[in-house]
Amino acid sequence: MPSSTVSYTAQNGTREPGLMHRSLLERPHQVVSGSGIYLTLADGSRIIDGCGGAAVAVIGHGNKEVKEAIIQQYSDVAYVHTMTYTTSSAEELANELTELSKPFGLTKAFFVCSGSEAMDATMKLARQYHFENGQLQRTKFVSRRQAYHGGTIGAMSVSSNLPRKIPYEGALLLDNVSYVSPAYAYHGQKDNETEDQYAARLVQELDDEFQRQGPETVIAFVAETVGGATAACITPPRGYFAGVRKVCDKYGILLILDEVMCGSGRMGTYFAFEPEGDVRPDLLTLGKGLGGGYAPIAGILISQRVVDVLAKGSASFVHGQTYQAHPAGCAAALAVQRVLKREDLVAKCHTKGAFLEKRLRSALGDAKYVGEIRGRGFFWGIEYVQDRASKRPFKPEVKFHKRIHAAAHDRGLAIYPGAGTIDGINGDHSILAPPLTATEEELEEMVRLLKEAYDAVEEELGSTMK
Ligand code: PMP
User: Does the keyword field hold Lipid metabolism (predicted)?
Assistant: First the structure.
């Protein structure tokens, strides 16, 4: 491992226990300020935030307009309970979002504080939809073997990120979840299969799983529109989600799309599902980029079909969390939406994303250990494999993703690292998810630093990799 490993060795070279609020083992760098795409560390060094934290800082750091909006909200009122009250920040945020989502049938918004809570709440909403419809036998969820939906009990139960799950399996997690294959062409599409055939096979597998479970017992199918944390930026094959929607409709099963990581404009459209054809989710989660990191906020967008059933049911939505729709979170997210809109950042992300793709492919496309570069907009994943021809991943002990992460950080670039977790087939990866405000020059610099980091790791591994 490099001597100046990012978060695993203390500044004085000794291994210290990490800060309790983060981890018992790791010691993160202390950040003292942020501005635009840059973070400044306590030792004075400047880091380009090439991943916006974890695809969070959608308009960059230190935006004064957002800061003012939060201060204004605190001056007006810091807190109200949603049982009785709302605020203009919450209402206007809901209006902004549903204006974008109404064409896709999503007409109501509900705000919580994190993506995990948003997932738990959608799972409850989905069950309540069937409950109000008298379909009490619907008790199961179907998810995918390449999914991260959060760290709370419900969200983790529909996730398949094994390292994060294993200690709790059989003790805390729900056992009414089954899994189908991810839409992961790099590892899943057969050589003799077209993209359409691959999508059709996956949809058939989902249909078969519904049949196996008894379709009348399934509440919902849960999927990230574009896979994030467990396998970097896996975009689905053409026609996949349209097919999924049809199969769900065939059995009255709800479709929950998780866009906590890939949504909020990061992929060049506000919702990542927009280019996927005729796909109208029943429930959709947003998080991370929604508040751009300025406050903890996440959201759920709910289809009119679900709203109608809940409205005629026994209660509205039996989900009361003290800090839901927190005024400061809503004010922050509203201000972020206004910046995105005024500066036309989502459309620009689409165009600049093509530039970023070109640069990434020319820098790393032919590199020895780069298996695939994939993504869209400002959400790019690089999967590393030991052998390109067979797509064989590195052994976990190589910790390739951590090496790249550390080498990039040493050179002043933050990227989001991840390791393969599915059936032992996929490799380590990095995610590049810069603020949508990044200029072409800044994107170019990120790619240059990433390439330097990659070259250093390739050299460091040298002939030890057989
Ligand atoms: N869903 C997805 C797709 C995510 O990537 C994440 C976070 N990585 C979550 C849900 C959970 O969000 P949070 O960490 O805000 O609870």
Answer: no
Q: Whose CA is nearest to atom 5 of ligand 1?
A: 261
The ranges of the chain with pLDDT < 70 are 1-26, 314-315, 420-426, 463, 466
Per-residue pLDDT tens for 351-410?
A: 999 999 999 999 999 999 999 999 999 999 999 999 999 998 998 889 899 999 999 999
DSSP 203-260: HHHHHHHHHHH-GGGEEEEEEESSB-SSSTTBPPPTTHHHHHHHHHHHHT-EEEEEET
Instruction: Tell me: do 160 and 271 sit in the same domain.
Output: yes
324-355 pLDDT tens trace: 999 999 999 999 999 999 999 999 999 999 99
pLDDT number for residue 161: 78
Q: Which atom of ligand 1 is nearest to the CA of 287?
A: 15
Cα–Cα distance between 194 and 427 in angstroms, integer?
23
The per-residue pLDDT for 465 is 73
Which atom of ligand 1 lies closest to the CA of 259? 3
Q: Give the position, in ligand 1's atom list, of the atom nearest the Cα of 116.
A: 16
Structural domain contains residue 6: no
- CA of 431 from ligand 1 middle (Å) equals 15
Tokens of 171: 């003790």
The pLDDT value given to residue 413: 98
Q: Look up the CATH number of the domain holding residue 121.
A: 3.40.640.10
- Asked whether 307 lines ligand 1 (CB < 6 A), one says no
Where a domain ends, among 342, 359, 389? 342
Rounded Cα–Cα distance for residues 333 and 348 (Å): 20
The string of DSSP codes covering 57-101 is -TT-B--HHHHHHHHHHHHH-S---TTT---HHHHHHHHHHHHHH
Pairing of strands 46-49, 379-384: unpaired
Is 148 close to ligand 1, i.e. is its CB under 6 Å away?
yes
Judge if 44 and 170 occupy the same domain. no
Residue 15 lies in a domain: no
ipTM of the complex: 0.99
pTM assigned to the model: 0.94
Q: What is the pLDDT of residue 423?
A: 57
Cβ-Cβ contacts under 8 Å for 118 (sequence gap 6 or more): 112, 150, 260, 285, 286, 287, 298, 299, 300
Among the candidates 319, 342, 365, a domain finishes at 342
